[in-house]
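I trust your eye. Have a critical look at both lines of this record:
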Amino acid sequence: MLESGSCPGFGSTADKYYRCDVIFGSPSADCRGTGICKIVAQHRRFEQPEQQQCQRTGAMFAYSSLDQSFSMLLFPEFMCIKLLRNHLRHGVLEMLEPARLPAEMVALLGLSAHAIPPGKYPIEIKMGYFQIKFPKIKSI
């Protein structure tokens, strides 16, 4: 779901943001392991995860033309502790495989890439959310 203007918690720097669900894990290991397995469009409000949905959480992806950054925003109140411990430990999101971005997100945010490349991405702890910037992804 695309929204424009300022993104709650992201301040006034986000031109556009996209709400979605992020399923953590490795795509080649049936969503087990580390990284981002899938990013899927979300057309409902964020909710507390059920125990069996512990690998999944609501997120926002935002693009800011001000600092030309593409970021994922995660909200700890919607994440189970197991997800925090297994996927976001030591202040880093480690991705061993690329994570495909939904075509709708790429088009609406005007991104130059169709996947988040493998790598280690630092997690910035902000007031009420985590921000993970993906510096290799720019707007076209």
In short: Residues 2-133 form one domain. DSSP finds two helices and ten strands in the chain.
